[in-house]
Specification:
Order of helices and strands: HEEHHHHHHHHHHHHHHH
Helix content: 55-70%
Strand content: under 5%
Length: 408
């Protein structure tokens, strides 16, 4: 009898976690891994479009040249890449240029799978104690992941933007640390994101989702860790300040054109407004009790006001929709991940008019921001603990914690 009960319990556990034949593998992870490998081999032959910037930057950073070291950003403002990303790119230095690029692309693509696992665990933690249906969560993650991976391969392989990859990876870890209630880790990972790519500052409102008593300490840790990475460059060469004024062309398909901005390059007010909008929208989301929307809103601000329209920008949007679809709401079908993929990536392929593509970007930002901020959503409700007779509930909660640890 006991053996039968044990076998039945094991079968139930495998069914709940999606394990394959008792192995530490889950069906949705295997499917997403296969999907990633397929896209990697489809894109890799034409990949590495921007890898030379990372290679040049890491060589200059660790060289004794007058335009390198702590003077790097003063002499090369076009390298809008954080020092953490350049240090990571330096790990490929012992290899040939081609081999180093291939290693970076493969590692970056693999980080996308890690992020999907982390988001799944973040969602399971967020809904801990609410009777989470883990099979349903896995299905939701699988469907959203099928939309996320093509755009992740776009940023990690086709463009080989290791800086964007690391910024989004560390932001995902920050969201997970937030769900675990780890303020110091939230500060650390958000700082590493900013130290990888400056625009990740838009995700800082995640700090406000922590308990109020931890705000000051977390913000100080965050500021200190950002300063440790960036301040040496500003003190080493005061001309580094000029790097913040670096401009790029204002492309015809940019949403900026719909605001009447026809300047040939980035307007002086654009970057500060972009950061302020992202921080403001993220703060409102936290105030509304919707911190899983912070990343999407920060990415929305970026594509709304950025004068460029590179397709790899959409990867940050897809991470935002992934977090919202998996954590912010409990619908089985993650509509926003697929809406973002079709509108922002598919639109660049099938819409011939620059102006129309700009309008689609504008419309997506307005509609998605309004939805995550205003549309009624089902918030998790955790039952109050009882003093007696709550053994079944405690057992269910322990089982749910095991499922979370197993990796939803």
């Amino acid at each position: 009898m006991r053996e039968a009960r044990t076998a039945r319990t094991g079968t139930d556990y495998e069914a709940a976690t999606g394990r394959i034949a008792g192995l530490p593998l889950r069906r949705h992870h295997v499917l997403l891994a296969a999907w990633t490998v397929l896209w990697f081999f489809l894109v890799e032959p034409s990949g590495g479009f921007s890898w030379h910037y990372l290679r040049q930057g890491e060589q200059l950073l660790f060289s004794g040249q007058s335009d390198g070291g702590l003077s790097l950003y003063a002499h090369h403002p076009e390298l809008q890449i954080g020092p953490v990303s350049l240090a990571a790119a330096g790990l490929t230095a012992p290899f040939s240029a081609h081999t180093g690029e291939l290693i970076a692309e493969a590692a970056s693509a693999a980080l996308g799978l890690v992020m999907l696992v982390v988001v799944g665990r973040t969602a399971a933690l967020y809904y801990l104690g609410t009777g989470t249906n883990h099979r349903r969560l896995q299905q939701r993650l699988l469907i959203a992941g099928l939309a996320f991976i093509p755009m992740w391969v776009e940023v990690s392989v086709r463009f080989a933007h290791l800086d964007d990859v690391l910024a989004l990876f560390f932001t995902t870890l920050a969201a997970h640390a937030l769900a675990r209630g780890k303020p110091t880790q939230v500060a650390l990972f958000l700082a590493l994101a900013v130290d990888s790519k400056p625009w990740a500052i838009a995700f800082a409102p995640l700090i406000l989702a922590l308990p109020r008593r931890t705000w000051l300490r977390t913000a100080l840790w965050f500021a200190a860790l950002v300063a440790v990475a960036w301040l040496p460059f500003y003190l080493g060469n005061l001309d580094t300040m000029a790097a913040a004024k670096f401009t790029i062309p204002n492309q015809p398909a940019s949403a900026l054109r719909w605001f009447g901005v026809t300047d040939p390059a980035t307007p002086w007010w654009d970057r500060p407004t972009q950061f302020a909008l992202g921080l403001g929208l993220g703060s409102i989301a936290v105030w509304r009790g919707r911190w899983p929307a912070v990343v999407l809103l920060g990415a929305d601000a970026r594509i709304l006001l950025d004068p460029s329209v590179y397709t790899y920008y959409t990867a940050s949007i897809l991470l935002g929709t992934l977090l919202w679809d998996a954590v912010g709401q409990k619908r089985l079908v993650p509509w926003w991940s697929w809406i973002a993929l079709v509108a922002l990536y598919g639109g660049t392929l099938v819409i011939p008019s620059d102006s129309a593509r700009g309008f689609v970007r504008l419309a997506f930002v307005v509609v998605s921001a309004a939805y995550v901020l205003l549309w009624p959503t089902q918030q998790p409700r955790r039952p109050r603990p009882r003093a007696h007779g709550d053994g079944g509930r405690r057992a269910a909660r322990r089982r749910e914690r095991v499922l979370v640890g197993a990796g939803s």
